[in-house]
Amino acid sequence: MRLFVGIPLAPAVIEELSAISVRLQSEGDGLRWSAPESWHITLQFLGNTPQYDCIVGRLRELRSAPVAIQLEGLGFFERAGVFFAGVGLTPELLALQECVTAATGECGFVPETRPYHPHITLARSKGKRVDGLRELKGRIHREPRFTGFVAEGFVLYESILGSKGSHYVMREQFRL
Q1: What's the domain count of the chain?
Q2: I want to staple 3 with a disulfide (CB 3.0 to 4.6 A). Which of 46, 87, 107, 165 is the partner?
Q3: DSSP SS3 for 171
Q4: Rg of the chain over CA atoms, in angstroms?
């Protein structure tokens, strides 16, 4: 199973991001736009693993208070060809992410060495084309304001690869 741990979004945030995505998409833009049902905030990517029972057991033991989430604006990971909505990195969100990586560490997972950069992927470049991202930047005229929400749980997702990208299935839910 190809797994990751993430925070699902509040319906109001999904509506706001959907409106932005619809407004910014254009025919033949060279981008693969993510479906709203796939939007989430990744806490840890685990990859292909047979460690399902260990992961679920350790995540069930995790204790944390609910976490306030605030989206911050739109951005680009140009080298990766990604358009995203940024998420404010609060001490509480970072603490939750560190708790998740500590819990999965007991199952043999090693946390990433890169700093945690929470975001919601809205679109990816198709192949090596980057002109779609450049054109998209030109269509963004103002930064949107987003509704905040409180994450009262997180999810263990399975990522299933397909010809049109990945789709995600909730395997386990955990309350904060």
Answers
A1: 1
A2: 46
A3: strand
A4: 16
The upper half-sphere exposure of residue 87, i.e. CA atoms within 13 Å in the direction of its Cβ, equals: 31
Q: How far apart are CA 106 and CA 56, in angstroms?
A: 11
pTM of the model: 0.92
**Dihedral pair phi/psi, residue 138, rounded to 5°:** -70, -20
pLDDT mean over 20-43:
92
Dihedral of alpha carbons 79, 40, 115, 50, sign? negative
Residue length of the chain: 176
Identify the CATH number of the domain in which residue 121 sits. Answer: 3.90.1140.10
Q: What is the pLDDT of residue 128?
A: 62
- In tens, the pLDDT along 38-85 reads 999 999 999 999 999 999 999 999 999 999 999 999 999 988 889 999
Report how far residue 33's alpha carbon sits from residue 22's, in angstroms, rounded to the nearest whole number: 10
Domain carrying residue 43 = 2-175
